[in-house]
Amino acid sequence: MNKDPKPANDSLFEAPPMGEQERMVEAIMFATAEPVTVAELIGRMPHGCDPAEALAHLRKRYDGRGVNIIKVGDAWAIRTAGDLGFLMQKETVETRKLSRAAIETLAIVAYHQPVTRAEIEEIRGVSVSRGTVDQLIELEWIRFGRRRMTPGRPVTFVVTQNFLDHFGLENARDLPGLKELRSAGLLENRPPPGANALGEAEDGDDEDDNQTELFED
Amino acid sequence: MNKDPKPANDSLFEAPPMGEQERMVEAIMFATAEPVTVAELIGRMPHGCDPAEALAHLRKRYDGRGVNIIKVGDAWAIRTAGDLGFLMQKETVETRKLSRAAIETLAIVAYHQPVTRAEIEEIRGVSVSRGTVDQLIELEWIRFGRRRMTPGRPVTFVVTQNFLDHFGLENARDLPGLKELRSAGLLENRPPPGANALGEAEDGDDEDDNQTELFED
Amino acid sequence: MPAEEFQEDVVSVSERVAAEALIVDVGAFEGPLDLLLTLSRTQKVDLRQISILDLARQYLAFVEQAKKLRLELAADYLVMAAWLAFLKSRLLLPPDPSEEGPSGEELAAHLAFQLERLQAMREAAAKLMARDQLGRDFFARGITEDVQRVRRVTYTATLLDLMQGYARIRTRDDFRPFVMDRQHVMTMEQALERMRGLIGFAGGWTELVSYLPDGWDADPQRRRSTTAATFAATLELAKEGKIEIRQGEIFSPIQIRKKVPDE
Question: Could you tell me the pTM of the whole model?
Fold first, then answer.
C-alpha cells in the first residue's frame, strides 16, 4: 500500500529552487564525458526545471576554475581548463598520427562544409583516398551531410559535434581564421574558367558518381 | 603544443598560489579515471605544492554542491551528491493495457461496491488472484472498504477517488447500467438464452435495479 | 610557428629545389598542384603577386629535367605540363579574337586562386591542429557514471474497457467467441472425402447441388458451409484431373462430371 502523499503527477508541484537546479545540472554534467544538451537535461530533471538558466549560473561559477563549462555545438560539457593540460600527461591518450592528407581533408571539410568529395579533390589537386575519409569518419570528426542537389546528387561531408568537442570549438563558425579566409574569397567554390581546366575535374566527378552509388541504400 | 609559460624546472621557483593549486587538484581529480591519493597529487603537481591543503579547500568548496569530494579508501574522488542519485536514473514509462482479469475485477468492484473477494469470484466465475487485487490497489483504483458484518467479517473493496478521476466519473453511480450498455451497442441485444450461469442474473435487466440499490446509501 | 612545422618537409624540398636548380623528387609531392605550390615559393613573393608565367616555365623545366633523367612521371603531371604549355603560349601571344574560351589571364588567375586556396587550407589545417585538443591539452571526466535506465510500467484502461469487461461477465453466455461451432461447419477435407466416393458414379454432367449431403440444406448456415466446402472439393478434384467443371453463364448452376482418363 503506497501511502505516498504526492500524486503521481509532478507537474502539479513547483520546480525546485534555482540553486537546487544548479546542483542537479552540475551532477549530471559531472557524471558523463559526453556533451549534454539542454533537451537531455530537461528530460532528466524534475518537471518545470529551467536547465538553461541553471547552466548559465553554473558556467559563471566554474569560470576560472580548474574545470570549466564549455559549449560544444548545441550541447554543454565540463572540460579541464586548457592551461592545466601539463598536469595530465598520465591521461593523455596517444592518438594515431593523422596523415597530411587526412589533416588537410579535415580542414577542408571544416572550412568549406558542406563539401563534396569532388570539391575536396579540386582544392587539394589530388584525389582523396577512401582510407582518408574513412579514418576521419571513424574518428567521428566528419560525417555525411545532405546530398548536393546537383547532377549525380553527390553526398557532402560536414564536421561533427565530436570534432567541435575535440578541438574545443563552440561551433564551426569559431574556426581559426575563418572570417579572414571568407573575406579573402578563399572559401568560395570558384569554377575554373571554361570547362575542366585541369583535365582532372572530369575524373573527380566520375568518382563522385561511383561514390554516390555506394552510399545509396 | 603546450604553451606552458613555466620553465621545466619548477623547483627553483615558488610553488603556485593556493588558488592555483586548488585548480590543479580539481582538474586532476576531474580527469583521472580513478580516485587519486595525495601522494599521486604530489607527484603530478609542481614542486612545493601542498595538495592536502588544496584538497581541503576544494572539499569545502564542493560542500553542498551537486558533486562532492569524498574519500575512497586513502584516495579522493569527485562523486555525485547522494541526494541526486535519482538523476542518474532515467525512467522510461511504459504504458500497458490492464489485463482482462484486472479489468473485470475492477468493473465488478465499481458496479457492486462494497464487494468482498468471495463475491467477486462468484460473479467472475473464477478465483481472483492476489496479484490482480494488489495491482489494482497499487494503481490506487481500489481500496479496502469496511468489513462486511457477516460471519468471518470479510474485508470489502471499493473504488477510490483516483479511479473516478482516471475514468472521468463523478461517482460510481454514474456507471452505465446493463440496459444502457445494451442500447449503446456494447452488449448483444439478444437476451441470454436460458438460465444465467451465475444463477443470480436470472432477473436479467432487473439486475440494474439491484445494482442501483447497492449504491444507495 | 606550427604552420611551418607542418610544412616542414615541403619547405626542405623547396629549398633543395631552389639551391640545386632542379632535383626531380616527385615522390615528395602530392600531385601537380602541390608541386606548383612548392615551385611558387622560389619566387619569394606573395602568392597574389605570383607570376604564373614564370611558374609555368619552372614547371615545364621540371618536367623536361625529369624526361632527361628518364624518370617516369605520373600522367597527371604530364597533363598539367601540357596545360601549362598551352597557358604559356596564351599568355605570351597576343589574344586571338577568333579563339573561343577563357583568356590566358583568366586561366592564370584561376590557377593563382587555386594555389592560394590550397596554401590557405594548409595554414588553416596547421592552425586547427595547433589548437588545444581533447585528451591532449584538455580533458573530459575520467570517472563517468552511467545513466541507469529504469523502466516503470503503468497500466491503463478506459471506461469502455471497464464497461465491456463488466458486460462480458454479465452476459457471458451471449458471447461465445473463439469456439468454432463444428456442428454447423463442413470442412473441405470432409467434402473432398465424400466427393471422392461419389464421383465414380458421375458419368454425365450433373449439377453440383445434387452432391450436397442430406440434412445440410435446411439450416442456412449449414447450407452455406457445405456448398462452399463441396465447391472447393470439386475444384481440388478438377485440379487432380479427376473431374471436369462447367458453368453455362454467371450464376447458372455449376455442373461436374467424371473425366475419362483416356480423353
Answer: 0.59
CB contact under 8 A, A30 and B88: no
Task: Give the CA distances from residue A17 to residues A24, A48, C100, in Å, rounded to whole numbers and listed in that order.
Answer: 11, 10, 75
User: For residue B126, is it within any domain?
Assistant: yes
CB contacts of A125 in chain C (<8 Å) are: 30-34, 114, 118
Domain count, chain B: 2
Instruction: For residue A29, tell me if it sits in a domain.
Output: yes
* H or E element in which residue B77 lies: strand B75-80
Q: Do B80 and C172 touch (CB under 8 A)?
A: no
Q: What is the pLDDT of residues B25-78, one digit of tens each?
A: 999 999 988 899 999 999 999 989 999 999 999 999 999 999 999 888 889 999
Range of the domain at A48: 18-81
A10: pLDDT strictly greater than 60: no
Size of interface A-B (CB pairs under 8 A): 77
Instruction: Please say if the pLDDT value at position B163 is more than 80.
Output: yes
Same domain, A188 and A151: yes
Task: Report whether pLDDT(C69) > 90.
Answer: no
At A52, which CATH number? 1.10.10.10
Q: Cis peptide before A46, with omega less than 30 degrees from 0? A: no
Domain assignment present for residue A149? The answer is yes
A130: phi then psi, degrees, rounded to nearest 5: -55, -40
Q: Chain C residue with minimal CA distance to B203?
A: C170
Q: Phi, psi at residue B128, to the nearest 5°?
A: -100, 125
Q: Model ipTM? A: 0.62
